[in-house]
Backbone:
């Protein structure tokens, strides 16, 4: 890490370049004054007034007025420019001792007004983009009731798959842009107001102005190694120059409940199936008369609840001629649908700019978050499996043993004794300075930080429910985690239009450092159960544990990009970034990531002048390479494992020993992703109907994976090498239609994308990667190998259910099967049923994902809805397979085979080693779904009512998030994420997704 610090001298020198080049200003005795208005005569505060070919300039005040004084007597060319308007130049002659008056009337630049897009290290008009970039307005995200910005992106962008990690309060989401391109971390890079980070849990959706998703190499190459999985740029709200201070309050409150409870057997049905299970195993029945039971205990009702949710957002924004400001505060409270789980978050944001003079601007974007909550008790699985014939408590009020027959404890007792809490504080933001000089140059330097402190306290009281569900002594464990990163970026940009040519370029140097430290300990026999005593000193020292670990790494990068446009028709973008990472050895520390993008605005050609129906037509293409280094901090450094103690010698003394824990690989280097994109943008009827279509091909080679080594080397951990290769290809498309019909307006948007994922190679000595092992006898459920998708499901195909002994005798079968058991297919046709007949039975990667958005308004009423879904993905129902006793059954088991001809899909209740403990198509379900993601209805009071009570806007609204999911999957949700790409969409008991209903008020004054 220290080897990177020599770069600070270079960075400092670079940041002073603009000051040295600025020179001095000449003084004069004349002045120019005037006003700037729009085409209707309204003032345009904040308009930049500059003297062409000089560094002199000013900004219009709140009334549109401006003054330039101290000018030498001579002729000047003044230029007035304002975002969203065509710049205008006027000639003026200054006379000594006089003030010359000149006025500007600017006309709107329609294309620029609503087509500015935030890109890496700058902004561009959408018409000039050569890359694949999709935009989402912050107002669309804030409609969705969720603490997670990632979840709010569901269904909004073509080529972006968003899956909730769970329904737990405060949970985030898994985002994948254009498929799975690596065997390591697949998360995109997030850029929040210029600060690079891998986690945006600190953000509040109502603070967001816009989101841009960068998908192809032309757009992401400016971020080099950080952009291999795509980039999500988030801009938070800011004040505007000359904007009067406005205050906003947005408050909503509501409730949430479990969206899709699992249909399980009741007590009578369970008793019937339990008896069958015992009888089919050659044992005596459990229950004398199953009909004596009724509904019994619904354990889902015992642990889940209807839970409240609240949100309060307050903000103030505005600006003067020299200062803009935005202050906001938010409080979000979410009680989980599972008892003893909750989440609280308070966020504060300050975004300000300070115009010190016409050339120098300072600013900061700072956000602070405090969060606290209770982790869920982890009883999803036990509530699913618990015996419904057992009640939660006995007549004395004590908890009953629910694990007499089922291998699940009493879920209600687990919830009651649960005491796991967490808290955290996080500061993310940057301060920056911009210096403009020589009319076309801007030097910017920014320093950003991301400081995160987290603490968890897990307390286990002393209790006993049964011999299997007990805790003989209280215990306490505390873990703290501190992570920090700083980012120093220095860029020089150039922007100029001359004749038919337009050029903007940026060059820069950036440095970033990361550090993480974890420390914790545990004690037993805590002197009390009160939370005020949850400190390690309250427990006994005997048997204590303590640990402390840390890692750090750093990066140094250089970047360059230039955009060239000729006659606003022919576009070219060239990008290069060089990244150096301490994660790699000195020989391979730096990676170089170029890209090129080109565009042709066909609609600007003369031969399109008479084609009135087409208002925009652009063809574009790009190619580039991006890197990836999302692996452990020290793959190129050998590690030593200590405490390898053993007894040696006649004295039989313990000798302290150490051994190699992991071999070094100094040749490990960057993963490289090469991506090609061909796109089309087209719009009709003055942009009322617009569409965007992209075909992409994305190849990642040199993927960092662990490969086997001979055992005689004496190291148990496999070394990391560059070996694997994965290809993703597909089509992204989105289309929108918007129309105003007097008081009625509406907008319809649709998007969809296809993904084809295939592993091309895993490298020498690595023929396959197994994943998805379960806690029962199934050692793996997925296999990754060349020719298949990453994490493809592997097991036996099922040819129905054996109906009689003759079918068993006349076909290959496994030992011990009986009529009613699953009939596994002899896929290799060798006449035997063995492990060699296992094959690929499905994939967690969808063939097609889609989204649909509709909004409409009539006078003061508005309504909006969004839907999203997927087709072609599979889910492994692992919770159905984990059975060690007589667990509860899904209701579908009532349709089991009970005799010849009764069922050819649901096996008999018996032979668990064959029917349940074997990975097969029986446990695989279709994960396709269509979800009504969000519905909102609102009414805004007319100004004639809101105005007299001091309101600019007063709106009431109702909202439903996760209204309904249409799916054939039997679990809580078909949106199942995994711990890794090789163990994805395996449902071993996910915290249920909630349906949320809220009512709110949004007022501005």
Residues:
């Amino acid at each position: 890490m220290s080897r990177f610090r020599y770069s600070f001298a270079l960075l400092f020198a670079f940041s002073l370049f603009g000051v040295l080049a600025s020179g001095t200003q000449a003084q004069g005795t004349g002045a120019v004054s005037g006003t700037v208005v729009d085409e209707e005569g309204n003032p345009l505060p904040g308009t930049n007034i500059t003297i062409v070919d000089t560094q002199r300039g000013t900004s219009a005040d709140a009334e549109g007025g401006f003054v330039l004084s101290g000018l030498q007597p001579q002729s000047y060319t003044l230029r007035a420019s304002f975002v969203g308007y065509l710049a205008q130049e006027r000639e003026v002659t200054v006379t000594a001792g006089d003030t010359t008056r000149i006025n500007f009337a600017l006309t709107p630049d329609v294309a620029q007004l609503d087509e500015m897009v935030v890109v890496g290290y700058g902004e561009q008009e959408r018409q000039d983009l050569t890359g694949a970039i999709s935009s989402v307005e912050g107002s669309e995200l804030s409609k969705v009731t969720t603490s997670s910005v990632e979840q709010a992106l569901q269904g909004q962008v073509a080529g972006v798959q968003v899956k909730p990690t769970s329904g737990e309060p405060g949970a985030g989401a898994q985002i994948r842009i254009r498929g799975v391109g690596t065997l390591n971390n697949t998360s995109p890079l997030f850029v929040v107001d210029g600060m690079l980070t891998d986690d945006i849990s600190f953000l509040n959706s109502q603070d967001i102005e816009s989101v841009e998703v960068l998908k192809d190499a032309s757009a992401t190459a400016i971020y080099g190694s950080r952009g291999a999985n795509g980039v999500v740029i988030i801009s938070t709200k800011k004040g505007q120059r000359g904007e009067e201070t406005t205050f906003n309050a947005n408050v909503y409150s509501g409730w949430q409940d479990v969206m899709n409870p699992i249909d399980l057997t009741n007590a009578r049905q369970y008793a019937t199936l339990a008896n069958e299970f015992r009888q089919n195993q050659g044992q005596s029945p459990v229950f004398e008369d199953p009909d004596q039971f009724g509904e019994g205990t619904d354990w889902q009702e015992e642990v889940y609840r209807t839970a409240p949710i609240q949100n309060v957002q307050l903000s103030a924004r505005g600006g003067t001629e020299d200062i803009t400001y935005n202050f906001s505060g938010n409080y979000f409270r979410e009680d989980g649908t599972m008892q003893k789980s909750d989440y609280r978050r308070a966020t504060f944001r300050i975004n300000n700019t300070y115009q010190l003079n016409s050339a120098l601007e300072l600013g900061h974007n700072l956000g602070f978050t405090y969060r606290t909550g209770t982790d869920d008790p982890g009883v999803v699985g036990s509530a699913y499996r618990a015996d419904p014939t057992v009640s939660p408590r006995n007549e004395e009020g004590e908890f009953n043993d629910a694990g007499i027959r089922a291998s699940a404890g009493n879920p209600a007792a687990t919830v009651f004794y649960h005491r796991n809490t967490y808290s955290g504080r996080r500061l993310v933001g940057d301060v920056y300075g911009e210096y403009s000089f020589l009319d076309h140059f801007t030097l910017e330097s920014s320093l950003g930080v991301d400081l995160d402190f987290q603490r968890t306290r897990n307390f286990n009281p002393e209790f006993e429910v049964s011999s299997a569900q007990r805790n003989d002594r209280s215990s306490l464990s505390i873990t703290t985690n501190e992570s920090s990163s700083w980012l120093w970026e220095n860029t020089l940009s150039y922007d100029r239009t001359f004749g038919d040519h337009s050029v903007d370029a940026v060059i820069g140097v950036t440095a970033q450092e990361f550090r993480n430290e974890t420390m914790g300990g545990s004690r037993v026999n805590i002197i009390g159960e009160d939370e005020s005593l949850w400190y390690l000193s309250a427990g006994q020292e005997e048997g204590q544990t303590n640990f402390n670990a840390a890692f750090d790494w750093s990066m140094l990068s250089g970047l360059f990009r230039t955009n060239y446009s000729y006659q606003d028709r022919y576009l070219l973008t060239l990008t290069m970034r060089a990244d150096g990472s301490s994660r790699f050895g000195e020989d391979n520390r730096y990676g170089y990531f170029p890209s090129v993008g080109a565009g042709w605005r066909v609609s600007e050609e003369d031969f399109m002048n008479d084609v009135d129906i087409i208002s925009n037509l652009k063809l574009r293409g790009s190619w580039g390479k991006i890197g990836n280094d999302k692996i452990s901090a020290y793959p190129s450094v050998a590690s030593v494992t200590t405490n390898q103690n053993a007894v040696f010698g006649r004295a039989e003394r313990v000798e302290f020993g150490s051994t190699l824990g992991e071999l070094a690989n100094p040749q490990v280097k960057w993963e490289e992703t090469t991506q090609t994109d061909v796109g089309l943008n087209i719009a009709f009827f003055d942009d009322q109907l617009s569409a965007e279509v992209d075909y992409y091909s994305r190849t990642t080679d040199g993927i960092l994976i662990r490969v086997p080594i001979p055992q005689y080397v004496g190291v148990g951990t496999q070394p990391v090498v560059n070996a694997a290769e994965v290809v993703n290809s597909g089509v992204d498309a989105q289309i929108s239609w918007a129309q105003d019909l007097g008081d009625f307006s509406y907008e319809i948007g649709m998007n969809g994308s296809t993904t084809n994922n295939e592993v091309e190679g895993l490298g020498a000595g690595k023929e396959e990667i197994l994943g998805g092992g379960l806690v029962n006898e199934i050692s793996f459920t997925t296999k990754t190998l060349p020719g298949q998708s990453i994490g493809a499901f592997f097991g036996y195909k099922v040819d129905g259910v054996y109906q009689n002994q003759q079918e068993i005798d006349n076909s290959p079968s496994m030992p011990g099967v009986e009529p009613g058991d699953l009939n596994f297919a002899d896929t290799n046709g060798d006449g035997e049923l063995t492990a060699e007949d296992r094959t690929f039975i499905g994939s967690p990667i969808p063939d097609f994902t889609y989204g649909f958005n509709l909004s409409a308004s009539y006078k003061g009423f508005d309504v909006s809805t969004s839907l999203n879904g997927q087709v072609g993905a599979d889910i492994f129902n692992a919770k159905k397979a984990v059975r060690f006793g007589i667990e509860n059954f899904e209701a579908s088991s009532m349709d089991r085979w009970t005799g010849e001809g009764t069922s050819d899909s649901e096996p008999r209740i018996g032979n668990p080693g064959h029917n349940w403990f074997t990975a097969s198509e029986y446990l695989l379900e279709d994960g396709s779904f269509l979800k009504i993601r969000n519905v909102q209805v609102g009414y805004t009071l007319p100004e004639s009512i809101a105005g007299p009570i001091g309101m600019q806007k007063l709106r009431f609204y109702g909202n439903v998030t996760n209204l309904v999911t249409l799916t054939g999957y039997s679990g809580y949700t078909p949106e199942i994420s995994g711990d890794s790409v090789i163990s994805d969409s395996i449902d071993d008991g996910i915290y249920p997704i909630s349906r949320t209903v809220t009512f709110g008020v949004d007022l501005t004054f």
Notes: The longest helix spans residues 267-280.
